[in-house]
Amino acid sequence: MKNTTGLFALPARILHWLMAAMILAMLFIGVGMVASVSERHAWLLRIHKPLGIAILLLAVVRLAVRLRHPPPPLPADLPALQKLAAHASHWLLYALMIAMPLVGWAMLSAGGYPVMLSDALRLPPIFPTSATAFAILRHLHAWLAMLLLVTFLAHLGAALYHGLIRRDGVLASIVGKRRETPAPAQAEVDAR
Q: I want to staple 111 with a disulfide (CB 3.0 to 4.6 A). Which of 19, 75, 134, 192 is the partner?
């Protein structure tokens, strides 16, 4: 099913901006946790775990929304390499939004730490207790966080490029503003 509206579906737009704020908060919280050994570390950790699980659940919902409501096509005049980079970075973001919380959950399970979402809600372990696995997963979690930050910044840079330099309606399609003139790909769809 092709998207002929030139816009992302409303649920996709809501999830996009909600999750962008959550991921940005999570990245700052993660840096704060690593940089702080004060009493704030425990407070940040109490936010980090439920926020990570919320991102995991919303990423699954968002993936279902994307499959049900495909995004509008990229402009036809966009170079093939940029189209490939756009598609690859989107799928990488989805993979990271799902992998990061799971790796963090597995890391805590391997370390024998409880994954508490609140004072009363504890998630079951998903990985057997192992000091070696804990060390590997801890490094993997940190590397995936760096990859998520780089991908997030590249995505932000591409959005600004489309919105401020090309002005091709790509940024407008996720903001919820219809393109003033249909993109070439959209015109081709309409002509069929």
A: 134
